[in-house]
């Protein structure tokens, strides 16, 4: 019989993605309060390890993870389906991009300097409540059985199956990291939504451009619809977007990323036992109507850490306000039924809403009066009809997508190509 080791700590964190690393960082950050002992259970290299990805978010000034920020922007642009160009300058906020390897490196370096943190490479097999806490049973890289037990446990792995919902769309995408032969990008401006791409029969599609320099950018093709596309369909859409819409000319594709993010009004359970909780996307941190997750993860993990360091009972607060989730549920249903046309909806919302207010709205940080003003910038009739319909709908089981952004790099699974 294999021997089984046991490790004990105040806090156990399962998963070392954005949520797990952020919680460990918040629990060990300088400041007042008790610093608990922590065990961070991280999947070993292989299929269970989260793929590399990029996270985009917005905040005022320099943040806690500024060392990990690859690029930031003060200007946002939307192109309507008819070619209308709308540009807005952010005042107090900046739109930022963090690649997950840089985030893991920055946070990992800080955690390694903290004596009360232990990182374990192991496959988590089972999490469960136990007297006076919770535990995870694991298998280490060398095949040993390991139990990690704590006063509380936070699990960031996605639930399977996903919770039932009234509406579920998928935000699915593929992007190229491109290098153009000639200057082709404005490094100061993000192309947030470019609707000058062919629109699907159901849902909506847009281009998304994060410039990294005059000749370099991450260029993505994104759809909100019920099912992902084939790899070839994404490649064809990106070829059309880069050459026919952006007219980039000769480009080198230096890497690629792709992913599927569920956009759903499902109710994610955050508490699985007296001391067992889900956090991050697994705990509902992904904003239903947009797919943004990183900022909500920071809010949730900081609140957890503040409570624990102050000696309070373990908890996992809601990542988004109820009013924001209710408005998202209405929008998702209106898009799914076709009562509102996605390109026109988002173009008009961007045109009529100050950019900082719109980003604060997407973060769930607007006041009631601001939400009402934003509501009047949408098609009131279809949205009201949808709001009245929602309470009558049953929640049904859905098949979920991967909440990841997988990144390929030359020399690994995606070869460097030249497109003309």
Automatic annotation (TrEMBL):
Amino acid composition bias (Basic and acidic residues), ranges on this chain: 402-420
A Pfam cross-reference name: Lycopene_cycl
Region (Disordered) location: 399-420
Protein name: Lycopene cyclase family protein
Organism for this UniProt entry: Streptomyces albipurpureus
Lineage: Bacteria, Bacillati, Actinomycetota, Actinomycetes, Kitasatosporales
């Amino acid at each position: 019989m294999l021997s089984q080791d046991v490790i004990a700590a105040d806090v156990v964190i399962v998963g070392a993605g954005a949520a797990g690393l952020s919680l460990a960082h918040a629990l060990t950050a300088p400041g007042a309060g008790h610093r608990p002992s922590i065990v961070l259970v991280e999947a070993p290299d292989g299929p269970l390890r989260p793929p590399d990805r990029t996270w985009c978010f917005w905040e005022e000034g320099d943040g806690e993870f500024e060392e990990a920020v690859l690029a930031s922007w003060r200007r946002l642009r939307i192109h309507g389906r008819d070619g209308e160009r709308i540009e807005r300058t952010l005042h107090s906020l900046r739109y930022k991009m963090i690649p997950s390897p840089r985030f893991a490196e920055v946070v990992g370096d800080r955690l390694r300097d903290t004596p009360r943190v232990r990182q374990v490479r192991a496959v988590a097999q089972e999490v469960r409540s136990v007297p006076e806490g919770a535990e995870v049973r694991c298998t280490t890289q060398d095949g040993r059985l390991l139990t990690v037990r704590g006063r509380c446990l936070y699990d960031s792995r996605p639930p399977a199956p996903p919770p039932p919902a009234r509406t579920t769309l998928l935000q699915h995408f593929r992007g190229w990291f491109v290098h153009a032969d000639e200057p082709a990008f404005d490094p100061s401006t993000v192309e947030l939504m470019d609707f000058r791409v062919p629109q699907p029969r159901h849902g909506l599609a847009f281009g998304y451009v994060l410039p990294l320099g005059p000749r370099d950018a991450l260029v993505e093709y994104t759809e909100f619809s019920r099912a992902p596309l084939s790899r070839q369909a994404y490649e064809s859409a990106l070829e059309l977007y880069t050459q026919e819409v952006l007219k980039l000319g000769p480009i080198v594709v230096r890497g690629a990323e792709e992913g599927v993010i569920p956009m759903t009004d499902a109710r994610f359970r955050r508490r699985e036992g007296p001391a067992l909780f889900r956090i991050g996307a697994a705990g509902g941190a992904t904003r239903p109507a947009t797919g943004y997750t990183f900022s909500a993860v920071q809010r949730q993990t900081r609140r957890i850490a503040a409570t624990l360091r102050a000696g309070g009972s373990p908890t996992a607060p809601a990542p988004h306000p109820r009013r924001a989730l209710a408005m998202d549920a209405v929008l998702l249903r209106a898009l799914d039924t076709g009562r509102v046309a996605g390109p026109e909806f988002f173009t008009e919302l961007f045109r009529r809403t100050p950019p900082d207010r719109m980003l604060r709205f997407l973060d769930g940080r607007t006041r009631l009066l601001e939400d009402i003003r934003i509501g009047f910038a949408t098609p009131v009739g279809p949205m009201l009809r949808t709001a009245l319909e929602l309470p009558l709908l049953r929640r049904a089981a859905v098949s979920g997508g991967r909440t990841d952004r997988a990144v390929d790099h030359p020399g690994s699974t995606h070869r460097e190509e030249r497109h003309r």
